[in-house]
Amino acid sequence: MLWLALSIFIATILLVIFKPRPFNEAGAICLGAILMFILGLVPLSNISQIFSANLNILLFFLGLMLVSYFAELSGFFNSAVNLALKLSGGSSWRLLGLVFALGIVITMFMSNDATALLLTPVVFMLVSRYGLKPLPYIFACAFVANTASFIFPFSNPVNLLAVDKFNLSLGEYTTYMLIPSILAITITIAIFYVVFRHDLRTGFSLVETKAVASDRFSHSVRLVLIFLAAACLLTSFMGWPLAIPLMLTAFILLGITSFYKKLDFNHLKHSVAWSILPFVLGLAFMVNGLENTGLTATLGNFLSNTLADGGQLEAGLITSFGTAIGSNLINNWPMMMVSVSSLSAVSDIGGANSGLIYQAILGADLGPNLLIMGSLSTMLWLILLRKRGLAIKPMEFTKLGLTITPLVLLVSTLAIFQLGKLSS
Questions:
Q1: How far apart are the C-alpha atoms of 276 and 280, rounded to whole Å?
Q2: Transmembrane stretches, by residue range (predicted)?
Q3: Which of 69, 148, 196, 362 has CA atoms 20 to 30 A from the CA of 377?
Q4: Rounded distance, CA 234 to CA 221, Å?
């Protein structure tokens, strides 16, 4: 049964990655989940339990997609990039730093998907207008989206898989992740400036641009986004479900958009990636099938044996690099689900060995900076740019990723290990 479940899982992930017609991501995952049910790998009695366990993540995703849509509709991203242009003073070096800073803030409070998929097209449009070489700025959007995505639990929806499973508090989370995230961001930016130093030599002359979305609607949306940032921090601190502030904010923005007569349901229907919801739920059913065959328990026992032999650092490196490599083989969502399920079988995972949880988050968040297929948002980022006339070869991304990611992952892993020793 183990090999049957594993074969279905791998075949389904390959369908997700390559998407042969007529499949899309959600369709492929749902087919795999149905096969798991038909073959008895996932009992029908598990449906309600799996659904309730993933309800917070599903509602978080729904709220996040809606909030991102209303923010984009209000011109938030255009205004933010225009501000960065003005602050740059015509310096390409300063502009790259400001794009990184903007990406960090957006990722922290609106998730990595908002940075990779909503900020990128605006940045590309503006750097093209000024005749700047686009690669430093475009790659910055993709890399910072992943590198800054473990600052807070809500900075990447993938993080919630571990946060929900192990009931991680904001205080404990930041104890382990704040310093590693600062190190990761600093190293990434430094390497960017070295790699793209020739592309950043020329400056540019600023031209007057018309203010973007400066009406009452846009101001109202931005005030609500500030409320969302504070609410997410408070919710994480209190240990409440993060879906609460996201869904509340989405309803408030829906009301504001309706009040200002900006709401177009047809546009909303086609602008939000609704298929991500059945994708996440179907994936949860498939991972449950792997759990039922004992695969994830076997992986957890392997880590427990490594820890028992005194190899806490070795276990941490296996977890972070294993999750990172796995994210590039089967995508970071299914890999993180497998990692979380495996870690739940590790002895004392909520105590002395809790650092492994953060190593897994690190691997799932940073891993997609290695290959385009590491996360769905990065694959969509590539497609989005191609539609706008910028053909980025996957090997260009991989070459930069291999220059940055192994070093960043190693330094961050060691930092989490040291922080774990200090807190124990």
A1: 6
A2: 25-45, 57-77, 97-127, 134-155, 175-196, 217-236, 242-260, 272-290, 366-385, 397-419
A3: 196
A4: 20
Q: What is the pLDDT of residue 211?
A: 54
Tally of residues, the chain: 424
Amino acid sitting at position 411: V
Q: How confident is the model at residue 214 (pLDDT cuts 50, 70, 90)?
A: low
Give the pLDDT mean for 54-61: 95
Q: What is the pLDDT of residues 72-87, one digit of tens each?
A: 999 999 999 989 999 9
- Half-sphere CA count of 255, side-chain side, radius 13 A: 6
Taking the CA of residue 28 as centre, how many other CA atoms within 13 Å lie in the half-sphere pointing to its CB?
A: 19
Q: State whether the Cα torsion 373-376-379-381 is positive or negative.
A: negative
